[in-house]
Design a protein that fits this description.
It is a single chain. The chain is of the alpha/beta class and 318 residues long. It folds into two domains: 127 residues, Rossmann fold (3-Layer(aba) Sandwich); 179 residues, Glycogen Phosphorylase B (Rossmann fold, 3-Layer(aba) Sandwich). Helix content is 32%, strand content 14%. It contains twelve helices and eleven strands. Strand 9, helix 10 and strand 10 form a beta-alpha-beta unit.
Length: 318
Amino acid sequence: MSEPLMRRLAARGERLTVGALPWVAPVYRAMPQVAEVIEFPFAHGGLQFKARRALAQQLTGRFDVAYVLPNSLKSALLPFLAGIPKRVGYLGEARVGLLTHRLKNPPKGQRPPMVAFYSALSGEAGIEADRPRLQVDAAQCASVLRELGLARGGYYVFVPGAEYGPAKRWPARRFAELAQQLDAPVLLLGSGKEAALGAEIVSLATGADCRNLAGTTSLTEAFGLIAAARRVVTNDTGLMHVAAALDVPQVAIFGSSSPLHTPPLSERARVLWLKADPAYQPPLDCAPCFQRECPLGHLRCLHDISAARVRQALHAAA
């Protein structure tokens, strides 16, 4: 969701170096406008002040401007310790002294879509028209297809996981039903945390050519498999945005979250969200709840989306 910001900054002549954790670094390597990616050695959670100070010493004097995208205190600490003269970011978590150029955080419930939220850091107008774009190296894509014995456009990709929680996951049995209704192999992508979910879908998809690759591919390989897929089916998760940025036809399924906030920004994407369906009765007054698990215990927002409905939307995506 930050790629349009990168494109804007590069277009006005800024040379871009992105600091990112290892799990997200491949995303920025798929952005041609990014000249360098520095992988942060930080573990998840905690301030890790000594590690940040050590890295800051290595970066001192290298940069004129830092755009701090996350709202956390620790994300603003590194450019401050590195003495970067101009540090741009949103107010939050007592960061007033760490940032030199501060944007006000929109009130809760009024935050714009994430692309516009990040692009506003550029200080330019017209940010609402931006949409993310990624590029996959053709040779890397061909390599992973050869390794798996696949042809471009000869398979579907499903992304059945969502790290945030089960209230964002279309049920495994629905994914299995859909796999049984398609006319080509299905690849299940995700992290190692979704390996068991992928195995469950494979066991339920009797008779379908359904392959569980969750936890077996790098993020770069996953990008290549998505780029070459015939169609993609995802929950509201990171790879949904990758498919949109690669302009691959997809169906994005929303439950507890809202496509008004984090939609797949592609004309080739179809969104299924029962909250916005006037024909669905009774109305889902509980959605979007933004909870990790359904607080009412029924998860109607996802269970009531049939495989047939997703298949229909999938064939309409082009």
